Each structure stands twice: as structure tokens, then as C-alpha cells.
Amino acid sequence: MGRYDMRPLRVHHTAIQLRTAGRISTLPPWHSVVDSIPPAQALVRSQPLQHTPQTRPRKAKARKASKLFRPTNITYREDRLRRDFFGDHPWELARPRVVLENDGKDYEKNDWSMIFQPGRPVTGESVIQRQLWLLDNVPNMTKASAYDQARKEFYKFRLHEDVRRRVAKEEALATGAYFHKSTLEVGMEIEDRQYEEWKEWAITRVKELEQKQNAMYTGQDNESMDLLDDDPETEAALEEISDDLPAQGQSALGGARAIPASQGVDAMENFTTGR
Description:
By secondary structure, this protein is mostly helical. It has helices spanning about 10-20, 30-35, 75-90, 125-135, 145-175, 185-220, 220-230, 230-240, 260-275. The termini are far apart. The mean pLDDT is about 80.
């Protein structure tokens, strides 16, 4: 049958053949309906329209069946503007945002002739909409100029927000308010604590490596040296001979007197001659 099953298309013809051959006594109830409204012959959808403009005609290429059902890419003008802004300001994506709308038509109530909108916080999306408004309403406005103007208005508004926040904090502190540590201070404390733990681990590791290196040259490790020092038999033997050993800086006492070599020769001659 191939890739597609063609039997549903021939159901009307099959029913007639069965009736003619006497396999069935009467035709099915749907025979008259299928006879008047036959099924469609196309089993697959047609190729979707391509909305991208083409400067020159292209030759029609045979497309594979796997790409026939792929949807067309949907792009907007704001997509490229968002890519440029958030590429320069990635931390704006970390700010929490409220995407809930009242009636789904809040965009109709915004006037982007200014970047500030009542009841809406100024975010990166405000810069995008402001830039788009400048491109559509200001003559001879380029994309770079609109981006710079919207970006400067955004910086100015954020600066005013920071000033108001600092003034409010100073006023609260002056009236006796108390603020906990900021997220930056908490993060620095955690980083310092981790650094101190790492430094202790590094010092211990360096000492272990030095001890292993010294034991490699001496032929004995530190554990065997500790066992020799703590051996009671070794300590008792050292205490017994400690009195007989000369102290450091003293000459040995006792033993035979040293005789010069000339006197020793004369004594041997006198002994042999009987003097």
C-alpha cells in the first residue's frame, strides 16, 4: 500500500462490489451519502505560505515530507530591539516582573511619547516600546538614535528612583528604624567564610605534602618516628647511658693515658734488654 493507506478512499467502490457479488444483501446506510459527497482525494495539507519577502525568484525545490508540517517562524519588530537591549543589560532580566493584565488591552492605554506610564513600572520593555514609538513617529529617526534616546531616559528615571530610595532610607534611619544586612553584605560574608575554610584546608594539605616529601628522603615516615620516640625500652636504654655520655662541649674523662710514640719505643727496648 505504500506510505499511505488508500482503502478509506475506495470504501464506496468496495461496498458496490460486495453487493454485486452477493456478499451483502443490502447496501450500507451511508452509501447514498458517500455517493453524493465523496471523500477528499488530498491526504496531506498543502505547503504553508512563506511570508518572507523575496528579492528575486527562486527555483521551486522539492521539500521533504518531514518539513511540510513545520510552522512558519513568527517574528516581530520588537524581537530585534529586545535582543539588543537585553544583550547590553543582561541583569534587567533578573528583576521580577508582573505580567498579569487587567483586561488584556492594557497596551491600548499606554502613551509611549514618554517612557513613564502611570501604574506601570519602568523596565526594559518600556525602553523597547519607547524606541519603537520614536521610530514610527519621529521623522528621520534611526535605530541607533532612538535606542540612545530611550536608553538615556531609562537611566535618568532609574537614577531618580535610587535617589528617592536613599532619601527614604536616611529618613527612616533618622527616626530610629533598623535595617538588616543587604543581600550584598550577606553574600560577602558567605564568600569570606568559604575562603577561610578553603585556606585552612589548603594549609593542612600543604603540610601533609611536605611531610610525605620529607619521609621520602629520610626513608622513614612520621608515624614510625613517633613510635620510636614513644618506645619505653628505647627511653630506658637512653636513661642508663646518659650518665656515661659526655655533655656537649666537654672532653672525655677516664680510660688509658695517652703515651707519645717515642716514649713507647724506648720502653719496648728497655723491656727487651732487661733494663
